[in-house]
Specification:
The chain is α+β, with helices and mostly antiparallel strands. Helix content is about 25%, strand content about 25%. The strands form four sheets. It has a seven-stranded antiparallel β-sheet. A four-stranded antiparallel β-sheet has the order 4-3-2-5, with no helix packed on it. One of its GO terms (molecular function) is iron ion binding.
Length: about 375
């Protein structure tokens, strides 16, 4: 009786990385997935954290989320609780960890002139300075005036807020400069937040990004939702740069504009007739996903938690004209409800994919030309992790 040998899988991040680096990255027609162990290994996940997420620029939000003085929101990024806010000097990003005994000082989002640690009432102002520390008068040489939350390096590019933990990282704006015309076309810096959506994904962060960036799966996973209007076979990978990859997603040939536009929203000004008939999916490496549509954008931060868990922070943006309409609250609620149906479909298939990737019989799979963005992400990781 024939029995296929099943290799014993060891959690060896360096070995997985070596296999990954041996894959070719010059011929798209021979593209294949990363080794399945790269989606499951604890030690490989730690390499990704160290070599990618603690070295490159990471998207965390849009400045319209903190449009007013003292607005703030919080986000955990690579195990670092962050506080993103607007003070009288502009946008700032701080560690969200109390200097005393490490409890986060802020939760969720809101507007506040101070942040009080829920553990012992240590209080910080919007510049990260410790302004109150009860009952510390007997602590020798303690001077609260010398205590400040660590500040996180950040850049705002076209209204998008990015952070890095790498003091030596090259500025981000020059890398994204070739996308200037595209971002200006969609008025990215001038948009306002319609709603945010945060949810947990029971699968690896790369699976979240890969699925978002290809339309090949529409016919199977989204056959009653996206496929009718945006057939996956019509999509194409139109651009790749030093920091991004782009998927073009056209409306079907005889599709109506009502299939791509949202009732209750104003289309962006200045778009041509052709530009009104497609959306684009952008990945700004490593964790920023953007969906550009004629009347709305979604920009997402994909935040790894573990090899098998990811946090998704999605910001949906519209024009100021759309947000000013009397019926906008209902429009936003309808948009949010509609997006949940697509999210549920992707949640299910990616959870199944994660389960299958743990099989000892799983091997790297060949990729379609409709999945070239998946290969682009793999190549980005190979370059970053070889450094």
């Amino acid at each position: 009786m024939y029995r296929e040998k099943i290799d014993v899988v060891f959690d060896d991040g360096d070995s997985i990385l070596q296999r990954m680096l041996e894959q070719q990255r010059h011929d798209a027609s021979r593209a294949e997935t990363l080794p399945p162990e790269a989606y499951n290994s604890d030690s490989f996940f730690r390499l990704e954290e160290d070599k990618v997420f603690r070295q490159d620029w990471l998207f965390v939000g849009h400045e319209s989320q903190i449009a007013n003085l003292n607005d703030f929101f919080t986000l955990d990024v690579v195990g670092e609780p962050l506080l993103i806010l607007r003070n009288d000097a502009g946008i700032a990003v701080f560690s969200n960890v109390c200097l005393h005994r490490w409890a986060p000082i802020a939760h969720g989002s809101g507007n506040s002139r101070s942040f009080i640690c829920p553990f012992h009432n240590w209080t910080y102002n919007t510049h990260g300075k410790l302004s109150g520390a009860p009952s510390m008068n007997q602590a020798q040489d303690f001077d609260r005036q010398q205590c400040s939350l660590p500040k996180i390096r950040h850049e705002v590019v076209f209204g998008m807020i990015f952070v890095t933990f790498n003091a030596d990282a090259q500025p981000l704006a020059p890398r994204l400069a070739p996308l200037t015309e595209r971002f200006q076309r969609y008025h990215v810096a001038d948009l306002v937040t319609a709603y945010t959506l945060d949810y947990d994904c029971p699968y690896n962060w790369k699976m979240a990004i890969e699925t978002f960036m290809e339309c090949y799966h529409h016919a199977a996973v989204h056959r009653t939702t996206l496929e009718d209007s945006f057939p996956g076979r019509l999509s194409s990978i139109i651009d790749e740069g030093p920091g991004w990859t782009i998927c073009h997603q056209p409306l079907r040939k005889n599709g109506e504009l009502s299939e791509i536009l949202t009732a209750g929203l104003e289309p962006f000004s200045g778009l041509s007739d052709e530009q009104m008939r497609f959306s684009e999916l952008l990945l700004l490496f490593p964790n920023c996903l953007i969906s550009l549509n004629p009347d709305r954008l979604s920009i997402s931060a994909i935040l790894p938690v573990s090899p098998h868990a990811t946090r998704w922070h999605r910001v949906v943006l519209v024009s100021q004209a759309s947000a000013a309409r009397e019926d906008f609250p209902q429009t936003a609620a309808t948009m949010k409800q509609g997006s949940l149906a697509i999210i549920d479909e992707d949640q299910w298939i990616n959870a199944e994919q994660q389960r299958g990737s743990r099989s000892r019989l799983a091997r790297p799979g060949r990729l379609s030309h409709l999945e070239t963005t998946v290969w682009h992400l793999a190549n980005y990781l190979k370059i970053r992790m070889a450094e």
